[in-house]
């Protein structure tokens, strides 16, 4: 029995149908969607790839099932947008709009970090958190800061990165800066809400099918959500598809990254976690990393096996499923993906290849892996009266141990020559099971990116291979890693672009308006520029003999003379709003070019105004890292992801009012408001949510109401609600926590 009030089916076509005879009349009703597909983005992300993902999934499912599915629309940045400034780009771009025509199984999930209101700062016209990480005008950041990504689940309870300035220089990338970061428990909040969302779908109808398609840190948020579901004795998602996860089986992260874990970054902790950071002061062991993943995959697999004899999949073409599939669909020609976990990895990913990450989203899951485990028979009591164990080296067989419910696919653009035929070709996705060579002997595995993207990156091991276990596709396809936004190194637009040499040489992408705002708030966000100011009249020059050549001949070619900076600053700022005043560093009087006896203007070196800097960044380009190359290309979802998601009952997302409720709960960005207010930028308020979804909110579990309202309060105040601490997550024995320095949290 459903917890919620269900909406009766409704007609798709306009108009009223009446019978002109005693014969039956057919009326057009929307067919049911084939399940519920939740998208989960990563760090430093507003869901920028959701359009490609949803549009690709709907198109691919239309082909797979023989029924039409229509995606929502998204407000994507255009070339024209690069030349104008929005008051707050986060409130404009990548926003989703559902219309009457939308008929989609996709539920986009949004999460992030919110700074406390009393700790917000302002730099270069942009709001930042206490550490200088850019936040929007709601003091929030989608996905949280880039540098807070984790390689294991326990680290989502960890303090943020604490970096001395010397190490912070590692993060000179204006788009993906590495600064001191806040505590990470906002990720735990996201995982709890995602778990609640899955449970809500199942409470609508117990036979509902749920797939998760996640990217980057969103993969770890999704994995942790399964831990919370299993801990509460609830069913996990049917299928997980993990794109480019930073999750790592390597427990040696190197000195710099280990140091960044334990350094006190002043104010990079979460309330209530102080006693537990002891257990997170070093890298998680191989045993902890692998056993946690095994436990989750096993639970998802068992969920799938429990439905092995279920008629849901084989009967999808029967009337009870309301036309979910077309008349030519046959279960025997399709694939039941319930109970499976897929890994999509990309050897070109220069983000998950970072030395402190070395994630499986870059190198895949190996047949063999060496690392460490805690020896619980050998320990001593340390000065803090806690057990500190010895650690021992181990060698594990990750792929075999993950079992037959774990599949991996490689998306690669590495060109290889066939030794027998001499033909150069690329890897196809969807071939029968085979081994893929990560890197041939002598092969440069970083030649596809600019020099700046090669810093602090690991190299793939030479002659190592990965067992590609993903099921064969009916039509194997080449991975599309290009994206419409990719700009080739020889593109004319880059010829005169102001791009440092080390950022050239690889493909580039236009900097989006939200990233431009983040770059403006960075340490190199504002530049000094030269500007020539003409005078309405002319002033006499008392001493033309002290003149010199212009220090900025591209701006002014005549003779100049040093001027009084205070006087010139006052003149050029006259009539300007205080926020638009120029900060002048050098000032010269420009002499007339004929006699050099009169001052006809001023040449000044000044700081860009914040809006000038943001506009410059919007019109600039950044090196492509390939981290979003799989999810950001629609074709990959049309031809691959749409065939790996589970299909089955989709009543929850077929009910228009309940679907709207699910999509609302999946978005954390509620503003407090009065009555039915809608903000000027189109965003809804908490009051509007309560009014619109009263019929479902009134039936909601009290624990979920507290969680959802706590998320709203967090978005408005930066104060986290009560959340489970690490030891509580370890209690159920699914998430394993032990570190390479001998700390272990043992479940009761």
Automatic annotation (TrEMBL):
Region (Disordered) location:
442-472, 487-520, 537-558
Composition bias of kind Basic and acidic residues appears in 442-469, 487-513
**What is the organism of origin for this protein?**
Pseudoduganella namucuonensis
Q: Give the protein name, as stated in the record.
A: DUF3274 domain-containing protein
- Residue ranges of every copy of the Antibacterial effector protein Tle3 C-terminal domain listed in the record: 593-726
User: What domain of life does the UniProt record list for this protein's source?
Assistant: Bacteria
InterPro entries per the record?
A: AB_hydrolase_fold, Tle3_ab_dom, Tle3_C
Low complexity composition-biased segments = 539-554
Classification via Pfam families: Tle3, Tle3_C
Q: Which residues form the T6SS Tle3 phospholipase effector alpha/beta domain?
A: 33-366
